[in-house]
Structure formats: C-alpha cells, structure tokens
Prior knowledge:
By secondary structure, the chain is an alpha/beta fold.
Amino acid sequence: MEHLTAGRTADVRISGLSKVYAGGVAAMADVDLTIASGEFVAVVGASGCGKSTLLRILAGFERPSAGVVEVGGTPVTGPGPDRGVVFQDYGLFPWLSVRENVAYGPSRKKLPKAEVAAVTDRFIAAVGLTRFAAKYPAQLSGGMQQRVAIARVLANDPSLLLMDEPFGALDALTRADLQAELKRIHVDTRTTVVFVTHSIEEAVYLADRVVVMTGGASHGVPGSIRRIVPVDLADRDVTSPAFNAVKREIADLVHAAPAPV
Ligand SMILES: Nc1ncnc2c1ncn2[C@@H]1O[C@H](COP(=O)(O)OP(=O)(O)OP(=O)(O)O)[C@@H](O)[C@H]1O
C-alpha cells in the first residue's frame, strides 16, 4: 500500500456548545473542547449522550443552539469541503465505479484531468483497492466499501476528518484491518480526526485523546463531557496490561451514572 504525503490539517475550537432540538430535546449543554491540528480524538459515551450531535455540528449538518464552533479559525456555518464525513453506511454512489466514486470530489474542483487521475489512483492505492478500481459498490464486501468511502473523503483533502461509527457494521477481523489502515493513513496525512465509536478498545487503539461523554435525554440531563483521557501509550498492543488499564479507566467513566444537575 502506498504512503501518502501530509495533507491539510486544522485545529478545532468548541466553546460553550449547547444543542436543543426542535421539540425541546436538550442533546448537549456547555461543551468545551479544543483539538490541536493533526490530533486524533475519539468520542465515546453511552447511547444518547450526544456524540453524533457533536459530530453533525462540526460537519455543519446541524446548527448549535449556543456556543462557538471553529475549524481552522473559521466559524462553522454549514457543510464544507474542508471537512470530510464518513458514516457507518458507506454512502457510496452505487451507479459509479470505485474509481468514479473516489474521483467525484477532485473532478468537481476543475483540476486538470491528469491531476484528478493521479489523486484518485493514489487514494485507491492507499486503501489497497487498486485491483478493484473498476468494480461497482455492490460487487464489494462491506469492508471494501468502507475503504472506498474513506478514500473518497480523503481525495478531497479535508483538514478535518469526521467519522461516526465508521467500522460499526464490519466483522471483527475486517474492523481490525481498517483500524490499522486508518492509523497508518493518519500518520501519513496528519489530518485532524474526530472519531465517534461505541468501542472503547477501538478508541484507545486509535486516539491521542479519548473524550468521554455522559448524560443525555434518557438520563434527564443534557449530554456533556465527563472527562478527556489522554492515551499515553508507547505502543497500542491491545493485549498489554497498560492498554487494558486505560480501557478500564474509560469503561468506568462511561458506565458511571451522570452527575445530578
Ligand atoms: N434530529 C433530532 N431531533 C430530535 N432529537 C434528536 C435528534 N437527533 C438526536 N436527537 C436526540 O438527541 C440526543 C443525542 O442524540 P445523539 O444521536 O447525538 O446521541 P449519540 O450519543 O450519538 O447516541 P448513539 O450512541 O445511540 O448513536 C438523543 O436523546 C436523541 O434522541
């Protein structure tokens, strides 16, 4: 698989963020979070604590009810090409081949054709799909489709990569492969990543810091950040005692009841 060169990267500043949905559901209140350029941050927490809401606000799909959200020093006012989003369902265009799916973004930038082809080939190679470039999504496994989704987003050279449970639908082996691949791609590109997951192990394996959220409408309190746990492990051997100690610390924080208001 091909190495990638460093791409764009941006810092993130979230301050006093609150979200009340139409109908009065208070999804989150008073969230502060600063992320450095190039950092990989995972977000974990019980169902309904506002993880996806946070991601959707960063993506610009939802507007905050209060607070400041800036990416690369620019306030987020809607979706933009500086932010790439990968969801659990791959969201590929079924009528386009792998190559056409990945080329879609670059070809809309009015780049010379040769440059579009070079970018497309590079990202298809980076996710190990060169031999499958002419195939259509329906001809690929779930893991391969998610690889295409990642290549397609990266080909747009985002400065912030937003991922919501991207590997949630994959079997354990494929999931482990994609985790290792994403880690390698992140080392190469240094794109800032915010990664929502239900898997604490996945969070500890991938992230520089793990944001643990708590609360949520089902607890009668808005979602908020309980703690941010830095992952200071030299290697990410999931079987090591040090790795498991961090996992346990985060699991305890996730499962503890939210603080009363
Ligand atoms: N569009 C919406 N309209 C109204 N309420 C919503 C909307 N989207 C989310 N909510 C509510 O906001 C709260 C937070 O939802 P969110 O999806 O952000 O949580 P989550 O932590 O990502 O949950 P999960 O882990 O189950 O995906 C939940 O109570 C949810 O029901």
